[in-house]
Specification:
Distance between the termini: 80 Å
CATH class of the domain at 81-232: Mainly Beta
Shape: globular
CATH superfamily of the domain at 81-232: Regulator of chromosome condensation 1/beta-lactamase-inhibitor protein II
Radius of gyration: 22 Å
Strand order of the largest sheet: 2-36-35-4-5
Domain RCC1-like: 224-435
InterPro entries: Ran_GTPase-activating (IPR051553), RCC1-like_dom (IPR058923), RCC1/BLIP-II (IPR009091), Reg_chr_condens (IPR000408)
CATH topology of the domain at 81-232: Methylamine Dehydrogenase, Chain H
Oligomer: single chain
Number of strands: 36
Largest sheet: 5 strands, mixed
Region (Disordered): 461-480
Protein name: Chromosome condensation regulator RCC1
GO molecular function, one term: guanyl-nucleotide exchange factor activity
Length: 480
């Protein structure tokens, strides 16, 4: 009895003097659009808070100087789409520490680790150990966006894909000319790259034989050029194999470039070297994703529409017919929060955290444990009926970030792009080794309360049981 009392007393004493559970750091980015905005127009505020594990939870408070505008809850499903990417034969992710890590094919340096050796598990991108908020992958190159709004690229550089003014391959990240600040999104196509600025302008660089840069020419560019007619009002951009699409603040979609399968969506198969409107999508679109030769859009109602090449059923309409205008994806008329188009397949993430994929199932890219073939309508990914935060489709592989704070991949693994330490193809989700990914929460608030003049907007996250507080500021101008 005395011994029992001694043990209990000792345990209580240790509990009283033991240090509190160490919290993880959180990182915040605040975006405001449009900027500048006219008086009376709605300004959309978006706070992104990165953490680890289950991710940050709770509210973000928005203020204009010392005046509180409002507060919004963090949502984690679909919030971190930019933190995970699938290239043609590689993949990259933003780590919980804010670094960039890549794995898979590395023939021309797409992993950014200073070598051309393929890696079957994640490696650090040299020089990008912190402050990274987004990653994107092409066929043989990759790019990252920093918290300061700078774009860094590495890998294959034929025709100036990396945007550094040369055509020399880079085994480590280099800065993109003229984009050392002010960028809010970056998107890699197959052999071109595009960026979206805080002013809502679209810029592209690299290979341009089909007009995928959108500058009205077919001349390749080694540094960024303006996309014709898109100097403002753009809220999202995505790159396909040889085409590009953008979504505007009005919810419209415009595409340009190669159009042999109708991937531009204007009802023709004629190429366009400058943006054209996608038929039927003049409003209501909140997300876009371009695949090999197809494109998809997500509406505010949670519906998915796709157009372009459909020989593997990647449009999801139950047929194998190419479509030059958008068609509804079967069974996905509501409830979807994010989409990702791969080379020949497409995936969607629902608000319940389920992943559905359709199109080519070569090497198991659809993740349903079935034999290779194709599926022209969405089907569930084995084991991912809930709890998924992010989905990213690559060449013939796919990756997802789960609510447990882990990345899983499936599909082709010739180059180690599954990241499980092998080269064995996987037809169901398989954990990626040696990766602690960033888990992002997003809070949205719209306001019309800002008066004419310059404003300093702020967002504050008070922290939660697992994360320290963080905050961010963003300038905003309101004009008469």
């Amino acid at each position: 009895m005395n011994a029992f009392r001694f043990v209990c007393a000792a345990a209580l004493s240790l509990a009283l003097v033991a240090p509190a559970f160490a919290k993880s750091a959180s990182r915040m980015r605040l975006l405001a659009s449009p900027d500048p905005a006219k008086i009376g127009r709605t300004v959309r505020l978006q706070a992104e808070v990165d953490g680890r594990g289950l991710g940050p939870t709770g509210k973000v408070t928005f203020s204009d100087g010392a005046v509180v505008i409002g507060a919004a809850l963090l949502s984690r499903i679909g919030a971190g789409q930019a933190t995970l990417t699938g290239g043609a034969t590689h993949a990259c992710a933003v780590s919980a520490a804010g670094g960039a890590r890549c794995w898979g094919g590395n023939d021309r340096g797409a992993l950014g680790d200073g070598s051309t050796k393929q890696r079957d598990a994640p490696v650090d991108v040299q020089g990008l150990s912190h402050d990274i908020v987004a990653v994107t992958g092409g066929i043989l190159h990759s790019c990252a966006l920093t918290s300061a709004g700078a774009v860094k690229c590495w890998g294959f550089n034929n025709s100036g894909i990396l945007g550094d003014g040369t055509s020399n391959d880079r085994l480590r990240p280099v800065g993109v000319s003229g984009l050392s600040s002010g960028v809010v999104a970056v998107a890699a196509g197959a052999v071109h790259t595009c960026a979206l600025t805080s002013a809502g302008a679209a810029k592209c660089w690299g290979y341009n034989s089909e007009g995928q840069l959108g500058d009205g020419t077919t001349s390749s560019r080694r540094t960024p050029v303006d996309v014709a007619g898109l100097s403002s009002g753009v809220v999202a951009i995505t790159g396909g194999r040889e085409h590009t699409c953008a979504a505007t603040s009005a919810g419209a979609v415009k595409c340009w470039g190669y159009n042999d399968r109708g991937q531009i969506g204007d009802g023709t198969t004629s190429d366009h070297s400058a943006p054209v409107a996608v038929s039927g999508l003049s409003s209501g679109v909140v997300g876009i994703s371009a695949g090999g030769a197809h494109s998809c859009a997500l509406t505010s109602a949670g519906a998915v529409l796709c157009w372009g090449a459909n020989f593997d059923g990647q449009l999801g309409d139950g047929t194998y017919e190419n479509r030059s205008t958008p068609v509804a994806v079967s069974g996905l008329s509501s409830g979807v929060v994010a989409i990702s188009a791969g080379e020949y397949h497409t995936c969607a993430l629902t608000g319940a955290g389920a992943v559905l994929c359709w199109g080519s199932n070569s090497f198991g890219a659809l993740g349903d444990a079935s034999t290779p073939g194709s599926r022209p309508i969405p089907g569930p990914v084995t084991g991912l009926s809930s709890g998924v935060r992010v989905v990213a489709a690559g060449g013939s592989h796919t990756c997802a970030l789960t609510s447990a704070g882990a990345v899983q991949c499936w599909g082709q693994n010739f180059f180690g792009q599954i990241g499980d330490g092998t080269n064995t193809h996987r037809s169901t989700p398989t954990p990626v080794l040696r990766l602690t990914p960033a888990v992002r929460g997003r809070a949205l608030l719209s306001t019309r309360s800002l008066g004419v003049g310059a404003h300093t907007l702020q967002a504050s996250f008070p922290g939660d049981a697992a994360h320290d507080p963080s905050s961010a500021a963003q300038s905003q101008t309101i004009v008469p």
